[in-house]
């Protein structure tokens, strides 16, 4: 069974001597193979120890920490100045070049600094530039993480340390470190899970979750919008509706929606798809919605505002519907039940029995999703959408089941069984007979959009 970092509530502490070795890279194979050589002195040049290289400094870098080619070395030096400025270790930097930075839709982001200490627009733009460099140049990703770790190690300013951890939270929504570097980054973060000063422990535990997720998912295609970066920096203290555990999302909405038996985001999106004519749209759930509009609606939901204002394309909502399921911290079908699904996928009775045995919240979400998709299997709807039960099973199976294997061969082979399992439920499961206390209902307007209170309030960040 796969070990997910989002599951444990306690984090093991490594022996002190191993901690020193990992944190400072002094004796590690990674340091010997990948760190560049730094020297100091005028007449008698001596090599700078890796432990010293990986300690905070106020001055700029003259060369990258890791071995990079000449062109990227110049970029790495510039990256360090940006990191210093974002963390507050450096005075206002010169304007960065946006030549390689795609346009971003920034939603309702305010350009001024508010009372909760929100970052200025310039700092957000610098972070976005930093993310873009890491997305476009895979060779720079480890260097970026390494530079942030360096500035967190021995930094004399607690507020700047806090900003550095916020930056780490932001990086972990955009791209993962290399597999070679992942172990060291994980160990560095893990050792801070007991550091209560400035609430570093909260951010470290959140970063472990994000590291596990981004390492599995891989890098984004383009940098997030400024509003998403601002939210990501505070995500450890203000959990998102996306990428969390089912229990976490459900607890998040408990005060505002105490009578809802599934996360409110599902009926909101499902009802919206129906309201915008999704049952008449060819390729619904297969054709992706505009990625910028998907991101904007996601940010709106994360701020607690469930409104379709400005959204007229059901493909946007359908994409977000799948994204919410796919980004759940824990798979909707628990890992320990995955193999059983694969092995029994050809038996309807066995498939339905698995659904009955799911944890209550998981079971109700599965029932909601399957019953909603069954609306699209009516003959007249299929003629309009060109989405048969086979097509729906193909696009939805990866959002319900999550293969644990690192083998592409196993994942590819299992995909066929995942589709068969999903197809069984779509075609034959009576969702009204599975849970005595829950019968899914669709198209009834789960949320009154005209007077929508936020499901959470953004908490001020500790300083």
TrEMBL record:
Positions with biased composition (Low complexity): 106-120
Protein's name in the database: Rho GTPase activation protein
Pfam families recorded: MyTH4, RhoGAP
One cellular-component annotation, GO: cytoskeleton
Superkingdom of the source species: Eukaryota
Organism: Pterulicium gracile
Molecular-function GO term, any one: GTPase activator activity
Entries under PANTHER family matching the protein: FI04035P (PTHR45876:SF8)
Occurrences of domain Rho-GAP (ranges): 244-433
InterPro entries: MyTH4_dom, MyTH4_dom_sf, Rho_GTPase_activation_prot, RhoGAP_dom
GO BP of this protein: signal transduction
Region (Disordered): 97-120
Domain MyTH4: 56-233
């Amino acid at each position: 069974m796969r070990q997910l970092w989002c599951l444990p509530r306690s984090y093991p502490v490594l022996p002190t001597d191993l901690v020193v070795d990992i944190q400072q890279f002094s004796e590690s194979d990674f340091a010997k193979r990948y760190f560049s050589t730094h020297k100091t002195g005028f007449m008698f040049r001596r090599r700078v120890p890796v432990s010293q290289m990986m300690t905070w400094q106020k001055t700029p870098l003259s060369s990258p920490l890791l071995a990079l080619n000449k062109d990227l070395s110049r970029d790495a030096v510039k990256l360090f100045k940006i990191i210093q400025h974002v963390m507050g270790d450096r005075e206002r930097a010169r304007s960065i070049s946006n030549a390689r930075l795609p346009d971003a839709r920034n939603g309702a982001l305010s350009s001024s600094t508010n009372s909760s200490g929100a970052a200025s627009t310039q700092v957000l733009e610098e972070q976005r530039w930093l993310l873009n460099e890491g997305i476009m140049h895979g060779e720079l990703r480890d260097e970026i993480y390494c530079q942030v770790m360096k500035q967190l190690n021995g930094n004399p300013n607690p507020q700047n340390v806090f900003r550095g951890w916020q930056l780490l939270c932001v990086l972990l929504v955009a791209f993962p470190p290399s597999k070679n570097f992942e172990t060291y980054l994980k160990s560095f973060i893990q050792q801070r899970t007991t550091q209560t000063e400035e609430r570093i422990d909260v951010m470290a535990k959140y970063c472990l979750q994000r590291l596990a997720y981004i390492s599995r998912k891989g890098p984004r295609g383009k940098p997030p919008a400024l509003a998403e970066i601002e939210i990501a920096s505070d995500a450890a203290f203000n959990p998102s509706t996306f990428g969390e555990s089912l229990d976490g999302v459900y607890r998040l909405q408990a005060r505002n929606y105490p009578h809802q038996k599934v996360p409110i985001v599902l009926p909101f999106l499902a009802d919206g798809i129906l309201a915008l004519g999704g049952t008449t749209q060819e390729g619904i759930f297969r054709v992706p919605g505009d990625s910028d509009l998907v991101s904007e609606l996601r940010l709106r939901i994360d701020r607690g505002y469930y409104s379709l204002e400005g959204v007229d394309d059901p493909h946007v909502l359908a994409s977000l519907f799948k994204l919410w399921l796919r980004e759940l911290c824990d798979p909707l079908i628990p890992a320990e039940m995955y193999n059983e699904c694969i092995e029994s996928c050809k038996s309807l009775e066995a498939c339905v029995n698995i659904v009955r045995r799911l944890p209550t919240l998981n079971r109700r979400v599965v029932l909601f999703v399957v019953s909603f998709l069954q609306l699209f299997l009516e003959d007249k709807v299929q003629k309009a959408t060109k989405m048969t039960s086979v097509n729906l099973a193909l696009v939805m199976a990866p959002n319900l089941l999550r293969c644990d294997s690192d083998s592409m061969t196993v994942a590819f082979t299992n995909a066929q069984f995942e589709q068969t399992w999903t197809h069984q439920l779509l075609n034959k499961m009576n969702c009204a007979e599975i849970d005595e206390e829950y019968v899914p209902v669709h198209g009834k307007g789960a949320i009154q959009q005209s007077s929508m209170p936020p499901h959470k309030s953004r908490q001020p960040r500790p300083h």
